[in-house]
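Newbie here. two chains, one complex. Structure please?
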Amino acid sequence: MSRVHDMGGRWGDGTVPVDPDEPVFKDEWHGRALAVTLAAGALGQWTLDTSRHAREALGTKDYTRFGYYEKWISALADLLVAKGVVSREELATGQSNGDSPLADRKLLAERVPAVLAKGGPSARDGAAPLYPVGARVTTRRPARNVMVEGGHTRLPAYAAGVEGVILSQHGAHVLPDTNAHGMGECPEPLYTVLFRASDLWGRAENEGDEVTLDLWESYLEPLA
Amino acid sequence: MPHDHHYHDHDHDHDHAVLPPEPALRVKALETLLTEKGLIDPAALDAIIDIYQNQVGPQNGALVVAKAWADPDFKARLLADATEVVAELGFYGRQGEHITVVENTSERHNVIVCTLCSCYPWPLLGIPPGWYKSDAYRARVVREPRAVLAEFGLALPEGQAVRVWDSTAEMRYLVLPMRPEGTEGLSVGELAALVTRDSMVGTGVPKVPA
């Protein structure tokens, strides 16, 4: 994973491309890309964390150049091959070499509303939180997956090694750092942590501005 | 290998590089292959697109906001446990499994982002707009929220602090904007018509009644 996706605070991206008349799907294939990705995900061969990691694992040039749905569809192709759902040869030729053993898991049209409405909550039974609301903590530095070199994590680099305060507790949630890599859900207490903008950026745009992040317990250390 | 030559713009060691370079054709190729392998029902794709194009959208979030403006008890419950309260209205599902509503006040303006990807409360707001998914928004709004809001035409009053919520886990956020002046006596439906998508992300404020 290149961490090119980890762009919070980056300079040089220009103005925000606001288009008040933008339709939900700007091009017809955008909706198709979203739907193919959700339908393929419903085969149950990977988790949401794994699919996020696959997008982050696109090459730096591809990640930067691709639009949103182009990232989705390219990462999906990579995942389908990595998980053995289709072969690289099938992708290259567009020719199926036979029915998939996963065909009985196919998402049928009549099941779509129920599947989307059901969602996939990440809350789990787990350990009680170590940090009370109001506790001062500091974040792991550098921001990295400590179990998988170059692996998925949800601590942005801009918030690594910074002091913050526990704003709220959310119970235990699936840990992306393991779940993205087939290492289990390993639920941990999740917190919303409040940071002063001046602590994150050296100089805040305005005194009193703040940023919050949702962070797992192992991303945090008590402030000595 | 043909992809070494034709698709030299891509990082070739990735499997997606063997697909056609044009994204629309790439999607089509995947859909066709997965359908042939019995893994995708094209009618299911139509159903997914229909739901996000025509059924789920900012009108859901706008109803939640309008009800909160109109009913203090609803608002108190919403701020305490939004997931349960919006689920009662039927707004639960994918990318909205854990909802938190954050309230704007004259002291604090809230803005939502996902710097690492583009997490967004789908059951309440639908599919995120292009700007929300843009590198510029993801990169800049955490560092210079006022400069970004100005590009949306929003100038915050002096003394109103900004709190930016970076959606790094599965918590999804909705901003409860301040109720505009001059809206006393409006029905929930009339109030909901004032609530814009951007006002629920924090890059705008509600419309004022004509």
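Moderator note: The longest helix of chain B spans residues 23-36. Chain B touches chain A through 83 residues (CB under 8 Å). Thread marked as resolved.
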